[in-house]
Amino acid sequence: MSGENPFAQFEKSFTKDGTVYKYFDLASIDSKYDQLPYSIRVLLESAVRNCDNFHILEKDVQSILDWTPGLHQGSNDVEVSFKPARVILQDFTGVPAVVDFAAMRDAVLDLGGDPEKINPICPADLVIDHSVQVDFARSQDALAKNQNLEFERNKERFTFLKWGARAFNNMLIVPPGSGIVHQVNLEYLARVVFEGDAGDGSKILYPDSVVGTDSHTTMINGLGVLGWGVGGIEAEAVMLGQSISMLLPEVIGYKLVGKLSSLATSTDLVLTITKHLRQLGVVGKFVEFYGPGVAELSIADRATISNMCPEYGATVGYFPIDENTLSYMKKTNRSEKKIDIIREYLKATQQLRNYADEAQDPKFTQSITLDLSTVVTSVSGPKRPHDRVSVSNMPEDFKSCLSSPVGFKGFAIAPEALAASGEFQWDDGKTYKLQHGSVVIAAITSCTNTSNPSVMLGAGLLAKKAVEKGLSILPYIKTSLSPGSGVVTYYLTESGVIPYLEKLGFDIVGYGCMTCIGNSGPLEENVVNTIEKNGLVCAGVLSGNRNFEGRIHPNTRANYLASPLLVIAYAIAGRVDIDFEKEPLGVDANGQNVFLRDIWPSRNEIQDVENKHVIPAMFQEVYSKIEVGSQDWQTLAVSDGKLYPWSADSTYIKRPPFFENMTRSLPKLQSIQKARCLLFLGDSVTTDHISPAGSIARNSPAARFLSGRNLTPREFNSYGSRRGNDAIMARGTFANIRLLNKLVPKTGPRTLHIPSQEEMDIFDAAERYREEGTPLVLVVGKDYGSGSSRDWAAKGPFLLGVKAVIAESYERIHRSNLVGMGIIPLQFLPGQNAETLKLNGREVYNIALPESGLKPGQKVQVEADGNVFETILRFDTEVDITYYQNGGILNYMIRKMLS
């Protein structure tokens, strides 16, 4: 199936300190190379190095070489295969991957093989950062209390992951309390250039690239590492050494010129860029930054911009590697020897960028320019990250939002309710008043900003000046500080600003995503009651990347993204409708008004502190013990076995049934006979409709399952936390209240069991069909599986017994994921659909697979109650057919390792 690399003749080498380093000389392949965007060069190198004419074809290489500014997605799409260098996971999305690997080991043992051969082929790192929440704040013991609660709630999941850390090779699992996945990636995990083993005693060099099961994986592009977020099945495929399919992207050149003003921050810059690119429209495209202004930005500044890539809609926001990148590697304690090798490799392959040299500027699909000097102090909100507001316009903008119709910029507060307010008593015996715009949550959180010493130290210096001026924060405002790594705590402590942050209530509450992902914890009951009783639009201010309605906290209807400095400023002010230019934050000991400008540190001031206190020794100290973990983690008792001891009583971790009845030999290809339609759906069914997400409804099959195991609704937790238990996830598949199934009269997770004409929950119907031995199909419209790639959007239907989907069209990645789970994607012929063929979903379906073997894109006949029609078999490559013949990608890899 695979052969010699046809590009082997382009391999070159250099010797350093007695070691031979090989690499592919891309420029010598084709003269078009030096016109390619730097991000496309990374795709090209991977295709050249991995070309085997099975997973990666010669035509993939040629397609990438032929990239031109005239490529436009939707009109002349070009699909290519890409093999990233590594995978990164967080705990919520990473648990199912580790569960699958553990189950694969069991399957290999059952089939007579060596289970210890099952390990990630491609390096994988998992950082536990999504489980901690702000239950306690504004006290020096908040950190310990929150971490203790985190362990109580997640002990079962953590035990499993700690077992995985010991059992699997090529997989690093970073314990809870260490930091946020993307910041740990930036400061420690990223290689920038990989040194692989060439097999003959020499090394092979190639660019670092990564896919991750979190949308903000894009942050690493600030370091010149090409990376983006993918679904779980794609991530597992890469872990197993497979390639992923992608459309060759348009590349938007974003030119930066000038310098930021002394008062502007990287947060202000990223919010400006986010609004700009959203307006331009860059969904599915690469954005590559260039121009002399880039050299003015630190790597942390660049990473902040790359982090919010999902918010401006691009696949990546890429900053090619330059000498600043290599300086950052030195600063973060990467070895000088490694940096020298990286520099030589990048020069040899024309991948080291000099932003001041226009001759190096590649060709782009489109170019736009931003003058950094035009960036002003900003926030974004109240409901979307790309709705930037200049701080000087905030009073007017918030007032407008209150009275505007309900929407992204409106709350529809009636004129007579605009002056609404409410009072409550606090623990100190004093009475406080809340009104529209009152701040009740102020959180310095999220890798977007906590990875950047300039804004973190800036916040510390602002806090110091505020305390020295006698300013304070109202006691009911839930203030919190959740650093993205231990390095942040280290330099905040060394610079002497921690006591001032604590004085204002910004005590460290944990190391994780926390408020940014909605883990803000509860507000005090009297605050909640006052907000609800008076219908108030109160606010959260956070240094995060997302502020969608309902995400941060149910009682903060307005939420604003801001720099850590502004988080503190708005917390001191106590409201978001303050005019900082005209209104003071408070008065000093002499009764003099104190304005924000009186305590705002300049960029030079911050830079002096950063140069003094952010040093390589800190990174060495923190990351040398990154795998040790807290005392709770160290004392967590786990099995030393290479096979996981599954517990039948667990409601979090369960052995999935993907490999039940699996044999060493390929199963015989069988047509689908006497199938029933489980769901009859229309257009634009998204992965959000399919995949289990959010809280577990009390009247759902998943709730009944958990209640049957003596759990109370309070203990149900979310589908996200239970992704490692297929019994719950199968019950949550298609459990979306907005699902429109034409077999039943109302929207919701219900369907019709056709033989009995009984309406029931979708899972219950699937179970009934399974007991009757009836295979299932889905009949759907256009763009099936659109939205974010989600592994359970394919795993769930598989577990429900779905054998095939018949659709008008598919979202590209979801089609691939269906194949990866052994589900057949069929497509109506052009001009045909369920309506034109007069299907109603109540038929018996027979799908005839050819006895002579499958071919990509061939026609397949479907018969539904005598109605015979042809469909297109959407196995688009030989690889797709191989996966299907094996029953899915995981089964394929098991057989491959056994052989």
Describe the protein.
The protein is of the alpha/beta class and 899 residues long. The chain has 30 helices and 34 strands. It has a seven-stranded mixed beta barrel with strand order 26-29-30-31-34-33-32. The protein has a five-stranded parallel sheet with strand order 6-5-4-9-10, sandwiched between helices. The protein has a four-stranded mixed sheet with strand order 1-2-8-7, sandwiched between helices.
Topology, number of strands: 34
Counted by DSSP, the helix tally is 30
**Pairing-aware structural class of the strands and helices?**
alpha/beta
Largest sheet: 7 strands, mixed, barrel
Output the strand order for the largest sheet: 26-29-30-31-34-33-32
Q: State the shape.
A: globular
Q: Could you estimate the helical fraction of the residues in percent?
A: 25-40%
- What is the alpha-carbon Rg in Å? 28 Å
Report the span from N to C terminus.
14 Å
Strand content: 15-25%
Low-confidence stretches: none
Mean residue pLDDT: 95
Descriptive labels:
899 residues; alpha/beta; seven-stranded mixed beta barrel; 30 helices; 18% strand
